[in-house]
Design a protein that fits this description.
Helix content: 25-40%
Distance between the termini: 15 Å
Number of helices: 9
Shape: globular
Mean pLDDT: 91
Low-confidence stretches: none
Number of strands: 8
Radius of gyration: 17 Å
Strand content: 5-15%
Strand order of the largest sheet: 2-1-5-6-7-8
Length: about 270
């Protein structure tokens, strides 16, 4: 099974490859991974330059829907040139790229299959401006949570926070208890009412949603999980912040979820 792998903003293919080494080492040679750099040069993400040298890339440097759409054109060109891919594995902004691509695809061409059969989302959400662009109502509560959690992430991921507090820097934004229980109340998932979102906008392939309950952006991960069919969805709390933990037990669990996605895709 061949995966296209998309990194977070201000990082790179090499960094994402390094972050996922322990997961990939636990998978058979039947799984292969194509790590690709974003097409835009970027400043490093907060704290990244402490651990990894440049260059750094992103898929967009502003949050306009025009910029997001340009990343989709790049994605389709990448798939045409170097595909096919059985699945995608992504982190942070890479998740936002794939999630927004899926939403526009379902809104505009719902009868055509996605160009990949599974999606592994790690610590990522869907841009709220994209939701509004496809006609989904986004409440003030959802926007407030988005803005607060984005600010908290920038603060907690900074070099100063890393040097001062290490792993203890991760605290969910404003003390929000962001856990899998949010999936039990679709009427209010951090300000989004999923009972009012049309079924045709749901992601129709098996998905895995990996989040950390100490990640300030955890609410966005749980919102994204609601866009997936519950019968084709797995969620996993890695227990940390906005990162890919290197713990052996966490890496083993994530590898098992990747294996599940392959089985689910073959049966779907």
């Amino acid at each position: 099974m061949r995966f296209l792998c998309l990194h977070g903003k201000g990082t790179s293919a090499a960094i994402f490859r390094s972050q996922t080494t322990l997961v990939r080492d636990r998978l058979s040679k039947d799984f292969t991974f194509d790590f690709v750099d974003g097409f835009l040069p970027s400043d490093p993400a907060a704290g990244v330059d402490l651990f990894y040298p440049p260059p750094y890339y992103s898929f967009w440097n502003d949050t306009s829907t025009d910029s997001v759409r340009k990343s989709h054109a790049w994605l389709l060109d990448k798939i045409r040139r170097d595909g096919p891919y059985d699945g995608v594995m992504c982190f942070s902004q890479g998740c936002s790229l794939i999630a927004s691509f899926c939403l526009y695809h379902q809104a505009e061409t719902p009868n055509q299959p996605l160009p990949f059969g599974v999606a592994i989302f790690i610590c990522g959400g869907v841009p709220l401006q994209v939701l509004e662009d496809v006609g989904i109502e986004v409440s003030k509560e959802a926007w407030d949570m988005n803005n607060k959690s984005s600010k908290a992430l920038a603060e907690q991921a900074s070099s100063d926070a890393i040097l001062k507090s290490g792993l203890n820097r991760w605290i969910t934004a404003d003390g929000v208890i962001a856990n899998g229980d949010a999936l039990q109340d679709p009427k209010n998932v951090f300000g989004l009412d999923f009972t009012r979102i049309p079924q045709h906008l749901r992601i129709k392939v098996p998905t895995v949603h990996i989040y950390g309950n100490k990640d300030p952006r955890c609410p966005a991960s749980l919102q994204l999980a609601q866009f997936s069919d519950p019968s084709l969805r797995k969620t996993y709390d890695h227990g940390g912040g906005h990162d890919v933990p290197r713990k052996s037990d966490v890496s083993e669990s994530i590898a098992q979820l990747v294996e599940w996605s392959a089985l689910a895709a073959s049966a779907h």
